[in-house]
Amino acid sequence: MVKESYMGQKITQGSMLVENLVFSLQSTLPVFLVMVVGYLLGKKGFLPQEFCTVANHLVFKVTLPAMLFCDMAGVDLAKDFEPRFVLFCAGATTAAILGVWAFAKAALRDKTLVGEFVQASYRSSAAILGVAFIVNMYGSSGLAPVMILGSVPIFNVFAVAVLILENPSRPAQSPWASAVQVVKGIATNPIILAILAGTVFSALPVSLPTLAQKTLGSLGGLTTPLALLSIGATFEGAKALKKLGPTLLAAAFKLVVLVAVFLPMALALGFRNQQLIALLVMLGSPTTPTSYVMAKSMGHEGVLSASCVAATTLLSALTLTAWIFLLKSGGYIG
């Protein structure tokens, strides 16, 4: 009887593993395949360099701000706001970025890669993939908006700072001049301005008019496909192979290291179920395609960013499945 119960548990865990793997593949493979389509279209001349340059600027200044404004405006602060959870998201995000940045400064031989490496190692597809994962597991978006509130603004503020300070073409400056440049970059960044505007709007006792909501939603919907096509079309295989080491190292940080460091802390603080899945997405989901767009728009080469997006997207189906399986096996998520 005990043996039958044990075998039944093993079968259940096995089917759970397969189910999670299939869902992860369905979530990540289409993203990777759109990059492949972009690569093929680029080779055929349908997506020339000029188009990709314009597409990157369009995503950076129009479609991504529209998407993030809608995401932040949709957060019901009165209903969803959980101070303890938001603070943990913000604290873990900040600590992760500073830790990866310190590591990159000390360990990377090619210092021109530091900015892209840091951004690729921490900046998750939280707003894009997070809601899909939580809805699939729990039937509603749950705590995804709260996680976005605690992490996405910090993602973007640090991305601006890192990409400005670690820009290989930036002239030598005094600390004061560098600080002024960073503050100016943050204050004028369209992505950060959209996040702030969306957060302020979410606190107002009004909802976005249907016409505006559909218009901004349509614009925001262009963000991911445009960014992925541009990544694929401009992907340089020879250069990417030369950066294979940093790519795999950044992917390890993105998919394994940050989760291994901060998820046990979340468990010790008593976070469970949707909270853990939201944190898993925040810490261990693939590098967002918009990291490539921001790197290119701010004067970086973009090869490492594109390679990290491709590598983490492909590998995350396995790593996310493994993390979910471990959490379920431990009884931490239902």
Order of helices and strands: HHHHHHHHHHHHHHHH
Could you say which structural class the secondary elements and strand pairing correspond to? Answer: mainly alpha
Q: What composes the largest sheet?
A: none
For the record, the CATH architecture stands as: Up-down Bundle
Can you give a write-up of this model?
The protein is mainly α and about 325 residues long. It has a single domain (about 45-330), classed as Na+/H+ antiporter like fold, CATH 1.20.1530.20. The chain contains 16 helices and no strands. It has helices spanning about 1-45, 50-75, 75-80, 85-105, 115-120, 125-140, 145-165, 175-190, 190-205, 210-220, 225-235, 235-240, 245-270, 275-285, 290-295, 305-330. Helix 1 (about 1-45) runs antiparallel to helix 16, helix 2 (about 50-75) packs across helix 10 (about 210-220) and helix 7 (about 145-165) packs across helix 8 (about 175-190). It is globular and about 50 Å long.
